[in-house]
Amino acid sequence: MSDVRKFQSHYPNWQFQYGLKDILVQIYEALSQRENVVIKA
């Protein structure tokens, strides 16, 4: 994650919508579907 204070000062109503886990799950699912790759945890 990064410091988003400057961005929020320009867009005061903006808020995070996704957590890190949600983002990683989306990346995993997209890669799995696109390349039919099996990733072992």
Helices and strands, with pairings:
Layout: H1 5-10, H2 20-35
Order of helices and strands: HH
Specify the biggest β-sheet: none
- Treating each run of at least 4 consecutive H or I residues as one helix, how many helices? 2
Strand content: under 5%
For the termini, the CA-CA separation is 22 Å
Roughly how many Å is the radius of gyration? 15 Å
Large-scale geometry? elongated
Helix content: 40-55%
Structural class: mainly alpha
- Uncertain segments of ≥5 residues (pLDDT<50)? none
* Quaternary status: single chain
The figure for the number of domains is: 1
Estimate the mean pLDDT confidence. Answer: 84
Compute the number of strand runs: 0
Describe the structure.
Helices cover 54% and strands 0% of the residues. By secondary structure, it is mostly helical. It has one domain.
Offer a quick outline of the entry.
The chain is built from two helices and no strands. It is mainly alpha-helical and 41 residues long.
